[in-house]
Design a protein that fits this description.
six-stranded antiparallel beta barrel, 25% strand, 12 helices
Length: 417
């Protein structure tokens, strides 16, 4: 009996998992990767440590993908975080769980993840052709029959499209998959940067460039209405803000800016203190340090880099002594500490985005198999789909899960899914 031949376009997380799973299920598998080596984007994820997944329960996990998260239920029911962790450990990669349920290789080195995957693929007999550019999906009778790669027609029984998104172009993610999918009839939901740093109006953040804040709460205010919030860490940059909580909110900000909405970040610098407790703290500090300048008093509440902005926005002279601060000024100070506002003027471009929002319309993909509903024998996995989650290991798990399912289904064929 002849083996089914499967071609995987893209050697990222989804593509590597799809290829290995297809080979393990008995297929003859070829990966076509446009870069000199596969897994380049994996090597830079998690700040070079590779946050491969998260130990959150399924419902919470899916919630991190917003309204499109339900599409992942089928894939997660077949191959989820416990199975992924067991897979890597079976391959000899030790894992550790950290704050927030994030899972990393114990070595702290993302390339170790790629190395383990490549060794697994070699054992499975997967062939990898690098520096290979796919120009076209070949079709016949409404189904994909192969690919045109470097002007050579390569026939197969199934194609898995796992080209990634359009962020981090240097790793090979240049949006090729959207063009290939559109050419066979797929609708592409407009792509835009996601998990991306935000730009702030004015020059307020520039003096605070490099400052990191922890344990703060950030709320998004859209057209004056209070919306989603996130708790954790953020950082200031010359152009604006970044860090986990900012990236988490950035998807809604990008979409809001596209609509022309007014987007403001409200930062609670003292979330552990309600207004009454904070006011009592301010009174105590101002009285006990009544002969010191307010800029010195504030060092007990704020990082040094934030004090000039605080005094400017609360209209308190920097040489005002603690004992001279009026009740009105203290009220403004308290309000600012609980509601420091930054007006968002834009977002950084695709090269600085962690992932891509938008992609192949999910209504055109069977969630039970990842097979295209527009072109039979075409399977789609990973970031090329209109799926995007928060930071914390969610997106890589989605890539591995959809890749696993696509590889399994492609190898078995339409009659044995």
């Amino acid at each position: 009996m002849n083996k089914r031949k499967v071609i995987v376009i893209g050697g990222g997380a989804a593509g590597l998992m799809a290829a290995g799973q297809a080979a393990a299920a008995g297929a003859d598998v070829l990966i076509l990767e446009k870069m000199k080596r596969p897994g380049r984007k994996i090597c830079i994820t998690g700040k070079g440590r590779c946050n491969i997944t998260n130990i959150a329960e399924t419902k919470e996990f899916i919630d991190h993908f917003g309204k499109n998260g339900r599409f992942l239920r089928q894939a997660f029911s077949r191959f989820f975080a416990p199975e992924l962790m067991a897979f890597f450990e079976q391959q000899g990669l030790e894992l550790v769980s950290e704050r927030g349920g994030r899972v990393f290789p114990a070595s702290g080195k993302a390339p170790d993840v790629v190395k383990v995957l490549q060794q697994w693929l070699q054992k499975c007999g997967v062939q990898i052709k690098t520096e290979a550019r796919v120009e076209l999906l070949l079709t016949a009778n409404g189904q994909v029959s192969g690919v045109l790669c470097d002007n050579e027609a390569l026939g197969c029984d199934a194609v898995i499209l796992a080209t990634g998104g359009a962020s981090y172009a240097a790793t090979g993610s240049t949006g090729d998959g959207y063009r290939l999918a559109a050419a066979v009839g797929h609708t592409i939901v407009p792509i835009r940067p996601a998990l991306v740093p935000l730009e702030v109006a004015g020059d307020l953040t520039a003096p605070m460039d490099g400052l990191d804040l922890r344990n703060i709460n950030v709320r998004l205010i859209t057209n004056g209405k209070r919306g989603r919030q996130a708790f954790g860490e953020m950082s200031f940059t010359k152009f604006g803000v970044t860090g986990p909580v900012i990236l988490t909110l950035s998807g809604e900000v990008v979409d809001g800016l596209r609509r022309g909405d007014s987007m403001v970040l409200s930062i609670d610098l003292k979330p552990a203190l309600d207004e009454q407790k904070l006011d009592a703290r301010l009174l105590r500090d101002l009285e006990s340090r009544s002969k010191e300048k307010i800029s010195s008093v504030l060092r007990g509440l704020l990082p040094r880099e934030m004090i000039p902005a605080c005094l400017k926005l609360t209209d308190i002279p920097e040489d005002r002594l603690g004992g001279q601060v009026t009740a009105t000024e203290r009220k403004r100070l308290k309000s600012w500490l609980k509601d420091f506002r930054l007006t968002i003027s834009g977002h950084r471009p695709f090269p600085e985005a962690i992932i891509t929002a938008g992609g192949v319309d999910l209504q055109e993909v069977d969630p039970r198999t990842m097979e295209s509903r527009k072109a039979r024998r075409l399977y789609l996995a990973g970031e090329v789909l209109d799926i995007q989650g928060d930071t914390g290991g969610y997106n890589l798990q989605a890539a591995f899960s959809t890749g696993w399912l696509a590889g399994h289904a492609a190898a078995l064929g339409p009659d044995k899914k």
